């Protein structure tokens, strides 16, 4: 339930504009990897290539290879929908479906994938996913109430439960705590530490303390100037990136000298 990711010479475009240039990175299964870097350096753009979400925009495309346990997700005949069921995504703002109950929200991804399951199996998926998202105890007595009635932090954990319910191999998180208060942030960070026991987790964060707290490895992206592509500058153990970076740009960024 956890796959390795290898990007090989990956370039990412919006039409003719190359937003991210020549990324080579190897991400281990059952680990947390943080993407950091200044605004506009392509963190989110690159993250969205990992489950083929990037290409849903008109003109957006990639070249290079993106291997999931050795299989190129951009290979001929690969169905992007099946890629997205293996590689789930959690967004910046919690986005539960507002008219659906908590229970329906957890099951929404499965239904979208066209899976038909019995009530008993659905109950088991709901409980397992909410437990996996550290939310079960808080909501078990109100599963039929709207998901939108939860706090922001609970809603984000509900979105994580919805992601887990489809049993992905990889979970991508795009600034998952940026709309949350510190206590909810801590709950999601604790959860990320648990998720890596089963999944490959990749998180974009602007919060360097958060990257230092939750990730095993950190990738620092940078951009030379407006209109230039973002590049992966340095990728290493998180402790090395923060305590002993090899590149001056990394050191300047993590020490707060720019960005
Ligand atoms: N839909 C789009 N169409 C065209 N260009 C885009 C689009 N989305 C992003 N870009 C451009 O791609 C580059 C990378 O943007 P991206 O959002 O990936 O950076 P980021 O590092 O995630 O930034 P931030 O930290 O501000 O979220 C930027 O130059 C941005 O303007």
UniProtKB/TrEMBL annotation:
Alphabetically ordered keywords of this record: ATP-binding, Nucleotide-binding, Translocase, Transport
Biological processes, Gene Ontology terms: phosphate ion transmembrane transport
InterPro entries the record matches: AAA+_ATPase (IPR003593), ABC_transporter-like_ATP-bd (IPR003439), ABC_transporter-like_CS (IPR017871), P-loop_NTPase (IPR027417), PstB-like (IPR005670)
GO annotation, cellular component aspect: membrane
GO molecular function, one term: ATP hydrolysis activity
Signal peptide coordinates: none
CDD domains registered for this protein in UniProt: ABC_PstB_phosphate_transporter (cd03260)
ABC transporter domain sequence ranges: 5-248
Organism domain of life: Bacteria
Entries under PROSITE patterns matching the protein: ABC_TRANSPORTER_1, ABC_TRANSPORTER_2
Pfam families, per database record: ABC_tran
Keyword Nucleotide-binding: yes
Record protein name field: Phosphate transport system ATP-binding protein
Natural source organism: Zhihengliuella flava
């Amino acid at each position: 339930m956890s796959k390795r990711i290898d990007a090989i010479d990956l370039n990412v475009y919006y039409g003719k504009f190359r937003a991210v240039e020549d990324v080579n990175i190897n991400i281990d299964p059952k680990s947390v990897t943080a993407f950091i870097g200044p605004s506009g350096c392509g963190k989110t753009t690159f993250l969205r290539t990992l489950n083929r979400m990037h290409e849903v925009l008109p003109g957006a495309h990639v070249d290079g290879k993106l291997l999931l346990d050795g299989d190129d997700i951009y290979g001929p005949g690969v169905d992007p929908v099946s890629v997205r069921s293996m590689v789930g995504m959690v967004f910046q703002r919690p986005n539960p479906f507002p008219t659906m109950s908590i229970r329906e929200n957890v099951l929404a991804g499965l239904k979208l994938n066209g899976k038909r399951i019995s009530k008993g199996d659905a109950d088991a998926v709901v409980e397992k996913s909410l437990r996996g998202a550290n939310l079960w105890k808080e909501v078990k007595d109100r599963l039929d109430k709207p998901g939108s009635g939860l706090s922001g932090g609970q809603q984000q954990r509900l979105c994580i439960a919805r992601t887990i319910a489809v049993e992905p191999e990889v979970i991508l998180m795009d600034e998952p705590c940026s709309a949350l208060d510190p206590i909810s942030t801590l709950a999601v960070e604790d959860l990320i530490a648990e998720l890596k026991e089963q999944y490959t987790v990749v998180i974009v964060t602007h919060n360097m303390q958060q990257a230092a707290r939750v990730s095993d490895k950190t990738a620092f992206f940078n951009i030379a100037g407006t209109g230039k592509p973002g590049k992966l500058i340095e990728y290493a153990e998180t402790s090395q990136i923060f305590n002993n970076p090899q590149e001056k740009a990394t050191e300047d960024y993590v020490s707060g000298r720019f960005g």
